[in-house]
Amino acid sequence: DGEGALTAFREAERTTGELLARDPENPYRMFDHAQSVFWVGQTAWTRKDWPTAEAKFRRYVELADAMAATNPKNPKWRLEQGYAANGLGALLLETGRPQEAIFQFERYLKVAKEMAEREPASTAFQTDLGQAHAWLSDALAAAGRLEEARAERQAELAAYAAILSEDSRD
User: What number of other Cβ atoms are within 10 A of residue 163's Cβ?
Assistant: First the structure.
């Protein structure tokens, strides 16, 4: 029920936006609103409504940056910055703007590296690191920067090899 989902996401966005407006410095309100904004944007993406999707994803990045600014050491807020940058980067790559996507994927990679270094035993964070290298590689390749793309792909493989060295069943 795509229409029903979109209606619910828009209502959530309206509600979380109102709550954020009442308490604009509260990072938890920012987080809640960011999730609502993301899902409206994600739905727009699936419908190939690129202007709406981009506007929502850019707003998601703004909210994630604002959350992180309240406490830069909070890993949840840092992760949100990475996820927001990755989403916008993927959208930019999908719409043929690899140069803009590279910037966003570099932001995602920075967060992914930070998290992987913070918790080296976390398979999830190591996988995120591999994925960050993969996305950046795709954007670099699309921009014609093939040697850099290859280096990122090699870094992706190294991240996965590290996971396998810890648990060959993974």
Answer: 17
Burial class (CB in 10 A: 0-12, 13-18, 19+), 145: middle
**What pLDDT digit, counting tens, does each position of 80-117 carry?**
999 999 999 999 999 999 999 999 999 999 999 999 99
Element (H, E) at 44: helix 27-46
Residue 18: is it exposed, middle or buried by C-beta count within 10 angstroms (0-12/13-18/19+)? exposed
Per-residue pLDDT at 6: 83
**Residue written as tokens 């209606």?**
7
| pTM score of the predicted model | 0.92
What per-residue confidence (pLDDT) applies to 164? 87
**Helix-helix angle 27-46:50-70, to 10 degrees:** 160
Where b means 16+ CB within 10 Å and e means fewer, 19-55 reads ebeeeeeebebbbbbbbbbbbbbbbbbeeeeeeebbe
Are 82 and 115 in contact by the 8 Å Cβ rule? The answer is yes
